[in-house]
């Protein structure tokens, strides 16, 4: 699904030991597989993002499983403590095996 587009907000700078707020949103239909197409009456196939992971320099800082009850365009917000400059990597995994990734750097003073 080429239309899935991840967006992430991470502060560009932080103080050592600061707890920052990270916000993510991905454009995705999160189709549960239970709705019917209005024209054909056929079930619309299930297509959800089932796993989200955030890593900081290779170490997982936040991870969650998503279920069909999650609305379209899932938004996640969480906190992370930063002790050093580095790169956050965000990974969304779809039912069909598609993986969507993006990265954001942060500078710690």
Secondary structure: elements and pairs:
Layout: E1 5-9, E2 13-14, E3 18-27, E4 49-56, E5 59-65, E6 75-82, E7 86-94, E8 99-108
Parallel strand pairs: 2-8
Antiparallel strand pairs: 1-3, 3-6, 4-5, 4-7, 7-8
- Overall pLDDT metric: 93
What would you call the quaternary organization?
Answer: single chain
Structural classification: mainly beta
Distance between the termini: 39 Å
- Strand portion: over 45%
* H/E element order: EEEEEEEE
Overall 3D geometry?
elongated
For the largest sheet, list the strands in their spatial order.
2-8-7-4-5
Q: Which spans have pLDDT < 50 for at least 5 consecutive residues?
A: none
Number of helices: 0
Alpha carbon gyration radius: 16 Å
Biggest sheet statistics: 5 strands, mixed
Question: Helicity, in percent?
Answer: under 10%
Total DSSP E strands: 8
Explained architecture:
This protein has 109 residues and is mainly beta. The chain has strands at residues 5-9, 13-14, 18-27, 49-56, 59-65, 75-82, 86-94, 99-108. The strands form two sheets. Strands 2-8-7-4-5 form a five-stranded mixed sheet, with no helix packed on it. A three-stranded antiparallel sheet has the order 1-3-6, with no helix packed on it. The radius of gyration is 16 Å and the shape is elongated.
List keywords for this structure.
8 strands, elongated, 5-stranded mixed β-sheet, 3-stranded antiparallel β-sheet, mainly beta, 109 residues
Quick overview of this protein structure:
The protein contains no helices and eight strands. It is mostly beta strands and 109 residues long.
């Amino acid at each position: 699904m080429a239309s899935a587009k991840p967006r992430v907000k991470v502060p560009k700078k932080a103080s050592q030991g600061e707890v920052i707020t990270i916000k993510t949103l991905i454009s995705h239909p999160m189709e549960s597989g239970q709705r019917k197409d209005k024209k054909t009456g056929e079930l619309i196939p299930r297509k959800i993002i089932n796993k989200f992971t955030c890593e900081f320099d290779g170490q997982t800082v936040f991870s969650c499983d998503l279920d069909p009850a999650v609305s379209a365009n899932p938004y996640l917000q969480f906190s992370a403590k930063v002790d050093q400059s580095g790169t956050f990597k965000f990974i969304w995994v779809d039912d069909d095996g598609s993986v969507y990734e993006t990265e954001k750097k942060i500078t710690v003073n």
